[in-house]
Design goal:
Layout lengths: L1 E4 L2 E4 L1 H43 L6 H4 L2 H44 L2
Antiparallel strand pairs: 1-2
Length: 113
């Protein structure tokens, strides 16, 4: 609930808990993105290893540089890195909002003592 007191609006404990839940969900998303990035990296490494075994060691070959599977894995790695950056920014904003809510709740308590 939000209570009005002249120019101030104070958030209650329930809203602070909702922000904590959002923050927890953001952390879960970051963990999932880290895991997904690790999986893609492992798959890329395995693919490169077996590709060298079956095609011979063709380092420096232009065909190897244009391998569609490798390009797709690398593209997905970049996508996940970009998503992680966005989620980390959201996490930072969430933590800032949570800190402001804590200050508001403490201020409410202090004003009504």
């Amino acid at each position: 609930m939000v209570e009005d007191n002249e120019d101030f609006k104070f958030l209650d404990y329930d809203q602070e808990q909702e922000l904590k839940q959002v923050e927890d969900q953001i952390v879960d998303i970051l963990v999932s993105l880290d895991s997904t990035l690790d999986t893609i990296t492992a798959l890329l490494n395995i693919y490169e290893h077996f590709n060298k075994i079956f095609r011979g060691d063709l380092e420096g070959c232009s065909i190897d540089d244009w391998d569609a599977i490798k390009l797709t894995f690398r593209e997905k790695q970049q996508d996940i890195i970009y998503m992680k950056q966005k989620v980390e920014a959201l996490s930072s904003k969430s933590q800032g909002t949570k800190a402001l809510v804590r200050i508001a709740v403490n201020l409410k308590t202090w004003l009504y003592i």
